[in-house]
Write a structure and sequence with these properties.
This protein is α/β, with parallel strands linked by helices. 47% of the residues lie in helices and 16% in strands. The protein is built from 19 helices and 18 strands. Helix 11 packs across helix 12, helix 12 packs across helix 13 and helix 14 packs parallel to helix 17. It is elongated and about 90 Å long. The structure holds 5'-O-[(L-methionyl)-sulphamoyl]adenosine.
């Protein structure tokens, strides 16, 4: 059976610098991409920037820049963030690229062909910052201003000629799809929200604008630019060479296995996108996972509140693995989660420095001092040694299950627990006590603990790739061998060659006071 896996992040508006929310979506997707590769899948992992629409046009005007040049600069900061976050994306798509333009036009043509587009006039509320239309009952007034109840963003009244997509005609088909595919929208709470919304009835959707020009023009009517969400969602197809559906990439990777998104853009991905695809006669993605928000001081990050957390600063001060670990361990994936520097420091000190880091360091130091810096051969294992390794091996199907259900929190909890157990095993087995009286026993303990470190490192690799690679390299496991199947193999350790040296993995963070 083909083992292909296609995962995407949202494509980000390059209207300002990237913040922690963007980093969060990308890190989550990267963890799944890395894990799937470790399982032997051929993974396509896509991210990029969403560059058309009124929001970007306005932002460019504010900065006195041509929108394309404005996007060129800011898109670059998102591209460089992929490097800083150590993402393993295979592609970075920009919606201003020709390949994307072609793909959006083809989608448009398919919608015209299926008879799902008509010309009319839109009058209603629009939020430029969300690039979203809102109904009257979704609007409230605050301090004399009209805002969306859903996002809190300012809305304005819009009246203009517009093409409409017959979304109303897709209510039943969508509900059937949700019903037949229980995991199409996850987590469950989000699925229920979407179903409730669709059950209330869907209105046709305005899918073109005429009051500005920054976008992809409607093929048959140059006055109109295509609604930025129809444009943006299509990126998931453009990157795999749609409209060429005979192309190898398209055949391998469509339908996508999972779109990772924030809960704020669920409606677009779980209602509009599948409806567009149904109309275009294309298969639907298998899953849309909406994660919660990262809160700063218990509030959503925003420029006006001045509580924006800059991932680049945090990474500079604490390190990328530290941030990745913290976000996954401490924020419950489906829910909103506050992050604080205090918790980040505790997490680095307790879990990374004192637990996993310390385990590796003390075991390798002991081997260096007492075993000519080579992993001792496996000899005369006791039941407790075998059990330690076996417990972890037995948990692999369960761990794969957690990943497939996007339950990263449970995954990491179990893996970190192995690391705590490993420290306890090392302390309780006291290899130092056998140095002079029973070398065989000492060797058995050391071989066991290194094997366990290898396995824990492989399992932690998707989350903390930089430090686990260092550890695995120390014991001569190369990048291409960081695979789940190498946890299952016996006698995988190289006991002939001296260990490479290992620098401090995680510096402990001192408290400021
Ligand atoms: N361009 C659209 C997405 C188009 S996808 C076809 C967009 N861009 S965005 O730049 O505003 O942000 C996209 C995503 O960033 C959100 O869906 C979410 O995944 C992430 N986050 C932005 N702020 C966030 C938090 N405060 N917390 C967590 N993630 C959030 O929407």
């Amino acid at each position: 059976m083909a083992k292909n896996f296609y995962i995407t992040t949202p494509i980000y508006y390059p209207s300002g610098k990237p913040h922690m929310g963007h980093a969060y979506s990308s890190i989550i997707a990267d963890i799944f991409a890395r894990f799937k590769r470790m399982e032997g899948y051929n993974v396509m992992f896509l991210t990029g920037t969403d560059e058309h629409g009124q929001k970007i046009q306005k932002e460019a005007e504010k900065n006195n820049k041509d929108p394309k040049l404005f996007c060129d600069e800011l898109s670059e900061t998102f591209r460089s963030l992929t490097k800083i976050l150590k993402l393993t994306n295979n592609d970075f798509i920009r919606t201003t690229e020709t390949r994307h333009n072609k793909s959006v036009k083809e989608i448009w043509k398919r919608l015209v062909k299926s008879g799902d587009i008509y010309l009319d006039k839109y009058s209603g509320w629009y939020s430029v910052s969300d690039e979203a239309y809102y109904d009257d009952d979704e609007i409230e007034e605050k301090e004399g201003k009209k805002i969306s109840k859903i996002s809190g963003s300012l809305v304005e009244w819009v009246e203009e000629e517009s093409y409409f997509f017959k979304l109303s005609a897709f209510q039943k088909k969508l509900l059937d799809h949700y019903n037949k595919n229980q995991e199409f929208i996850l987590p469950k709470s989000r699925r229920n929200e979407v179903i409730k919304f669709v059950e209330k009835g869907l209105k046709d959707l305005s899918i073109s604008r005429t009051s500005f020009s920054w976008g992809i023009t409607v093929p048959e009517n140059k006055k109109h630019v295509i609604y930025v969400w129809l444009d943006a969602l299509t990126n998931y197809l453009s990157a795999i060479n749609f409209p060429n559906i005979d192309d190898e990439k398209y055949k391998l990777f469509w339908p996508a296995d999972i779109h990772i998104i924030g809960k704020d853009i669920l409606r677009f991905h779980a209602i509009y996108w599948p409806a567009f695809l149904l109309a275009a006669n294309l298969p639907l993605p298998k899953k849309v996972f909406g994660h919660g928000w990262i809160l700063s001081d218990d509030k959503k990050m925003s420029k006006s509140l001045g509580n924006i957390l800059d991932p680049i600063e945090i990474i500079r001060d604490y390190g990328i693995d530290q941030l990745r670990y913290y976000l996954i361990k401490e924020v419950s994936l489906g829910n909103d989660g506050s992050i604080s520097m205090e918790n980040l420091k505790n997490c680095i000190n307790n879990d990374l420095a004192n637990n996993y880091g310390n385990l590796c360091q003390r075991v390798f130091a002991f081997i260096k001092k007492n075993c000519d810096n080579k992993i001792p051969k496996k000899v005369d294992l006791k039941e407790s040694d075998i059990l330690l390794i076996q417990n972890l091996k037995n948990s692999i199907p369960k761990l794969i299950g957690f990943i497939n259900k996007q339950n990263l929190n449970e995954y990491i909890r179990i893996v970190v627990n192995f690391s705590f157990e490993a420290n306890k095993y090392f302390n309780d087995s006291e290899p130092w006590a056998f140095k002079n009286k029973d070398r065989n026993r000492m060797n058995a303990i050391l071989h066991t603990i290194v094997e366990h470190i290898k396995n824990i490192s492989i399992l932690l690799y998707p989350i903390i790739p930089i430090s686990t690679k260092k550890v695995l390299n120390t014991i001569h496991i190369s990048d291409k061998d960081i695979l789940i199947e190498n946890i299952k193999k016996d006698n995988f350790l190289n006991c002939k060659t001296e260990l490479k040296s290992l620098d401090i993995l995680f510096k402990k963070i001192e408290n400021d006071n």
